[in-house]
Amino acid sequence: MSRNRDAASTGESPAGPILRFDGVGMRYGRAAEVLRDVNFDLAPGSFHFLTGPSGAGKSSLLKLIYLAERPSRGTIEMFGRDVEAVALADRPFLRRRIGVVFQEFRLLDHLTAFDNVALPLRIEGGKPESYRADVAELLAWVGLKNRMHALPPTLSGGEKQRLAIARAVVNRPDILLADEPTGNVDDAHALRILKLFVELNRLGTTVLIASHDEDLVARSGQPVLHLDKGRLRAFGRNVRQEPGA
Amino acid sequence: MSEMFDVKRWKPAPLLPRKDPRDGSLVFVVAVLCFLACLTALGALAANRAAQGWTGQLTGSATVVVRAQGSETPDAAAGRAAETLAGVKGVSEARAMEKEKAEALLEPWLGQEALELNDLPIPRLVTVDLDPEAPARAADLDKALKAAGIDATVDDHSLWIADIERSAGVARWSALAMFLLIAAAAGAVIAFATRAAMAAHRETIEVLHLSGAQPAFVVRLFQTRFAQAAALAGLFGAVGAAIIGALARLAGGGQGLTPVLPVAWIDLLAVAPTPLLAALVAAVAARVAARGLIGELA
Ligand SMILES: Nc1ncnc2c1ncn2[C@@H]1O[C@H](COP(=O)(O)OP(=O)(O)OP(=O)(O)O)[C@@H](O)[C@H]1O
Ligand SMILES: [Mg+2]
Question: Among B19, B121, B212, B216, whose CB has the most other CB atoms within 10 angstroms?
Fold first, then answer.
């Protein structure tokens, strides 16, 4: 990343939370709620892990943030706005401020690594001449300098992981979400990926990573949001304490 | 290590895979529909020209049946009628048909023997060529004949002309209806293909959506893709129809397949807008179909 940035450049007041969950519940269809009464704030520029056993609702919580699902209860505020009050036509612009590294990558297999990373910039309507150098630089930064024209199916798990990270951050989102980004790589590689997130966070991006990897979480020393059976159980620093939550 | 990747030469790849195994059959079906639409158009043009030719011939002339009265011989009556008619405004020429010619016309109906009896009162015919600029009306001819005291009936072919014009109208409207039907079928095929393509590329659509693509961005991808496919199909169909039209023109000799289906070289130009029209129909159909499905994402 060549350009520097800080929380102030997001255009929000640095004082308020960049993300706030207030009494949020969520269900798939008519099934029972998979998230119940979730309350927390994330300060701009913070770094958190989201932990919890399988099925606790980590991915579901992230889906609420990247606007793939809607809460059944409560309010979610992002950048100081109630997400549900945002007009349908404006939701795409909100999504562009959130980078996501999906649990299953969701790379487009028919596009080269370079085209995959360029995707968010094309969506924003940029001219190729104006962003292709940035894309190349970012690919080099995640260690894929020599794999730019490779198709995702020909990449290793770790390479796909780093490609997905590059795509998630190429348009300099304010919030970066990652779902099990170290799920299927060895420890050394997991550390390498963690270092990428830490660097992005230093540049001002608010980071939230869902992870099973207790070891990695402990080693990072970053605060933790712990989910259990759809409820938020433990909070680190930068997280608002809710009585009786 | 693989070959170098030249960043400066990079151009964004199509977001939908360039090659789709379904494209071949789609292009074929739409090309066939375009071909049929073009043939319909060529047929309608030819039918129109044929009708114009016929009515032109018929409006340019009239036939008068003259019956001799009193002591006047039929030939004398016919001659007098021709003279009278030639003087009417809007008539360029009037000729009494010779007896032999009139008999030849009647022979199939009456038989040789009847004519040989020679005492049959064979009516004489006068053919009248009308001035193409300002043709005389049947009523004018009638009046002139009455004034000259000639018993005659004027046939200005108006019955036939009305018949031909009615048929030509039916042909035009049928062609238009067929054209619309074919366009609707093409639209339906494209809509169907769009829905299939969207199902096949569901993952791409979802990733675009979650990356902040507006619905219009996604709709445009499918719209462009199917408009391109249809334009290609339209080109094939139009070329095919133009070849058939050219063959019909050549087979017909000087006047095309005269007089039934006179195709003119200029008619072949009518197929030229087909790729554009096909692309337009496809774009609309794909757009409507894609918007219907994309509405589910919000
Ligand atoms: N698309 C869905 N439709 C219905 N139920 C779902 C769906 N996705 C998840 N669930 C249910 O929601 C609950 C929480 O799932 P979620 O994927 O959020 O858990 P998770 O903490 O991410 O688990 P893991 O660590 O295994 O990824 C689970 O009971 C799961 O069965
Ligand atoms: Mg999960």
Answer: B212
For tokens 């030249």, what's the residue?
B6
* ipTM confidence score: 0.87
Range of the domain at A131: 107-172
CB A96 within 8 A of CB A171: yes
Residue A76 lies in a domain: no
In a domain, A96, yes or no: no
> pTM for the whole thing?
0.78
Cα–Cα distance between B218 and B32 in angstroms, integer?
Answer: 29
Asked if B109 has any chain A CB less than 8 Å from its own CB, the reply is: no
Q: Which residues of B touch A119 (CB under 8 A)?
A: 15, 207-208, 211
Residue located nearest, by CA, to atom 16 of ligand 1: A57
- CA-wise closest residue to B233 among B283, B290, B183, B279: B279
Pick the ligand that lies closest to the CA of residue A54.
1
| Alpha carbon distance B3, A108 (integer Å) | 22
Q: Domain for residue A139, yes or no? A: yes
Test site for ligand 1: of A36, A59, A101, most ligand atoms within 8 A of the Cβ: A59
* Number of domains comprising chain A: 1
Residue A79 domain-assigned? no
Answer yes or no: do A108 and B212 touch at CB < 8 A.
no
- pLDDT value at residue B107: 73
Tens of pLDDT, residues B65-98: 888 887 888 788 888 888 888 888 888 888 888 7
